[in-house]
Structure prediction request, 576 residues.
Amino acid sequence: MGWIFGQLKPYKRQVVYALIALFIGAGAWLLLGQGVKAAVDQGFLANNAQRLTQMVALVLAIGVVGSIATYFRFFYMVWLGERVSADIRQQVYSHLLTLSPEFYAKTRTGEVISRFTSDTTVLQTVVGSGLSMALRSTVTFIGALLLMLFTSHVLTLCVLIAVPIVLLPIRIFGARVRTYARNSQDRVADVGAYIDESLHEIQTVQAYTHEHLDREHFSQRIEGVMGAARQRIRFRALMIASIIAISLLAITLVAWLGANQVLSGELSAGELTAFMFYAVMAGGSVATISEVIGEIQKAAGASERMMELLDTVSQIKDAPMPQPLPQPVRGELVLANAGFSYAESQDLEQEWVLKDLNLHIQPGERVALVGPSGAGKSTLFQCLLRFYDMQRGQITLDGVPITSVGLRELRQQFAMVSQESVIFADSVRENIAYGRPDASQAEIEAAAKAARADEFIAELPEGYHTQLGERGVRLSGGQKQRIAIARAILANRPILLLDEATSALDAANEIKVKQALDELMQGKTTLIIAHRLATVTNADRIVVMDKGQIQAVGTHQQLLTENALYRELAQLQLIA
Ligand SMILES: Nc1ncnc2c1ncn2[C@@H]1O[C@H](COP(=O)(O)OP(=O)(O)OP(=O)(O)O)[C@@H](O)[C@H]1O
Ligand SMILES: [Mg+2]
Prediction:
């Protein structure tokens, strides 16, 4: 809760407005009782019609003031709720952007999305209406109690004895409500994750006619949500019902006592009316508070989860005192005894995905990485970009260990075309300009032309402004790949990482794109992963990788004579 209040700090002005409105409102409602009392005693019972009219007018006036105050209280409170949840969303999102791929490998994005939407919505209602109601009720309760005391000590004493008893159910059921609320939100997140996954892969779902199983799995999850909610609702309902029962009992008792006092002349009818007015008000406040406490408990569950997200720190630490790269960056990469494992504990020697890599890549050199699937080629790229940190040895860029370079500066030296082309649900233009948002239209078109993407872009309904749809569903595999290549070309960075960058292209386009890439590679260090050896025979050096180790390094001709694995690969592809 302290955390949520902390979020209110920048909005002191609005909080003050809300509080002023709240006090005026509560004051007006309390004053109303005095008006009613006067109307009964001085007008009604005294048979004074004029006084009665005056008092009724007064009551009406107080009611108008109270209503206006309510408008402002409601407005500012709900506004604050929206504002706080918007701020929390921004904080969480910008934090999520810093988390390493290792986090996303463990957490399902759908779950994160659900935390985002449903948990912040819970916080929003609590801050917006819950807190407002709780505050108003507290003020009303205290005010009503004071005015009751003013009317009758004995009766107030009775009410005071009753209040702790009324609140007892909160103590008994509150903690349960909170636990179940958290549980329930977790289930909702689970459902979110499932929807996200199955709908994203809808073609596979339908192709394998997996719908009925999905329906079943989904229904299990939904029932999980219901089950968790049922627990929470049961305890909340129990809590609310017992509070209402106890307060009703207390009010009736007090009213009975008061009525007797009126009969014996100790109290006027107006006083009893006012007292009961306040007692009901106080009782209502207690009921509201108890209900809000249920809400707050739900919010506490939600904010715990938000804070958990905010507390997750990236496995990849930015260098505390970054060492600048020598300018201009030449792109010399040295791997010294580099070893890496995805597993967190490295007890098992066979878990190493990369083992003792030693390689010196000269500035401007063109190096190809070849080897069987699962050899660790893509993993090496990920380590270069510091998506993961090597556990052993080190990698240096222009003589500086990559862990000592500022993360941002390091990544800005690489242009990568990943194994699976990544297209954002945006226009062609934005997709190509991704690495250089300030690029001019001419530059973007030049990059598209070099990547042989200009022709198909011209045929799209709105050319460069065509929206590509989620994950680029409106493009073919080869078209997506060419957009990704254009992006790398436009980014124009000192080191180029190509992971199967031309694998989805037809032979004619592949040759053309290769020519474009050859031009681009001039003066740039380039690492090319390729399964099709024909595309890399002209590399300066070819590195043969197998099971995380470097087997051999050499030119195409050297390797053909010296390395059995390479020769075998080449023979299978009919290029030996
Ligand atoms: N996020 C991950 N967590 C755990 N293990 C992983 C992860 N990513 C890859 N691996 C494992 O690391 C090994 C190397 O994978 P990598 O993707 O580097 O292979 P690759 O050489 O690029 O293969 P391909 O040619 O098929 O793309 C594989 O055995 C794979 O199972
Ligand atoms: Mg790979």
The chain is about 65% helix and 10% strand. Strands lie at 333-340, 354-361, 366-370, 392-397, 400-401, 414-417, 495-499, 525-529, 541-546, 549-554. The mean pLDDT is 85. The first helix runs from residue 2 to 7.
